[in-house]
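Let us begin with a simple case.
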Amino acid sequence: MSKIAAIQMCSSDNIDENLSIAARLMTEAAENGAQLMILPEMFSLIGKNPTDKIDAKENMYSGKVQEALSGLAKKLNSWIVGGTIPIACSDKNKIRAACLVYNNTGKNVARYDKINLFDVTLSEKECYKESDTTEPGNEIMVIDTPFGKLGLCVCYDIRFSNLFIELAKRGAEIIAIPAAFTVKTGEAHWKLLARARAVENFSYVIGACQGGTHSTGRQTYGHTLIVDPWGTVMSEITNEKFGIAYAEIDLKKLHAIRKMIPVLSSSEPRA
């Protein structure tokens, strides 16, 4: 079995500070035996304004955030799912919300760009339009790792069950979900959706979250968690701000469940 760590942060608008905190938490996780670590969405920057991430964007394969992730993966001899960071795209006025994966030698082995963007109106005072500053991705990502086949999603993606079904069809056994849920939607839906995605695909779901009141005044729900393929919450952070959730991944258990209830190999219903 492999030990996994989901990192919870309360990121600020100071990139260097956020990188330092992430390094400290991942070092602690590695010292506790974690071989795969997942960081939250926007771990390196939650800006005062939505356009701050455009100013902080990096070109792929260069920049302080990518260099930090690569260096930490190599130093800690661990795999890192780097939450999301702003990566430049063809539109100079937008970025891609890119989830980058590094192996234990520090090599970038995968990139997933958030597909489903958070354009919602929760109230007259709370409105989000992620598509104003972010270009959506269009590629589903599942990669081989020493811990199992790893599928990648980000935050709002969790509401789109067809995406997770496609990840499972491509072999995903573990699904990482860096997230920054709002308090309102998190209280109502976060754990419910995480457990549902785990059960309907009989996969481990690792939700690494932002949690607490940020320096910008924004509030996020937290509740970083790890759910097993039976829908059991194995580990959860219930306090705000910083922390680490741990769990061991048992692929034998996963495949026993899939054999017992073979939903992934069943025929699609016909009209």
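The second case is a distinct protein. As before, the sequence precedes its structure tokens.
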Amino acid sequence: MVDLTTLAIPAYIVLMAVEVASYRFLPDEAEAGYKVRDTATSLAMGLGSIAANLGWNALTLGTLLFFARLTPLHASAAWWSWILLFVLDDLRYYWAHRADHRVRILWASHVNHHSSRHFNLSTALRQPWTGIGTMPLSIPLVLLGYKPAMIFTVQAANLLYQFWIHTERIGKLWRPVELVMNTPSHHRVHHASNPQYLDKNYGGVFIVWDRLFRSFEPEVEPVVYGLTRNIETYNPLRVAFHEYAAIARDLPAVHGWRARLGVALRSPGWAYRTVYGTTSGS
């Protein structure tokens, strides 16, 4: 199967160039814009993710093919079936993404995407190098009769949609669009470290899931990007694995198997409060 997100790399480059040019000709001091070292790190994370996904995708494909043999169902390949799959997969994405923020061992994979203090199209490429933890949420789609190739395709389309919402250059859109779809305004909130914005707006394509499951927050106050305690590095290896290293450091700091399981499996905020007495990590 061809990865659609990899085929889109030329489009990513062109759109980033357009965005960079827009800052030159239409500067805005209220926007974080681009920084060379930060952008270089995001690009390196993107390239590393492509390499890492060769292994993760093979493992995911093998797992999905295994479960595909167990189901008696066979989903249609008609256009309406693709649309239904796209919507169901976006619901899957919502819960997988929410788990990435609420389970620390999953956050250790996802945190690098939030590590930049800038918010531009290059930030969209700052992708995890690990992430098999949320793969089980794709299994129900296979059990409904959808072929793994169809699932991979709609998941790639979901990520393609999310590229353009990583920007400060686009303000709020027409109200009906903002009501239903994930937009740059909604996603800026998701990348914020402001207390009122933390753990909000998990949706991929549709923001209706956040409205339905009470995790929606509108963009009102100016957004401060990054983590609650930022990492002072542009080293891609440290960006990719710093939270795993933090978990390894934190485990000996607590006593008892319940607390140690909590450090790895409860929310990052719970772990930070338990180990450091604060909501931010070390």
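Residues 112 and 240 are 6 Å apart (CA to CA). The chain has 13 helices and no strands.
Keep these points in mind for the review questions at the end of the chapter.
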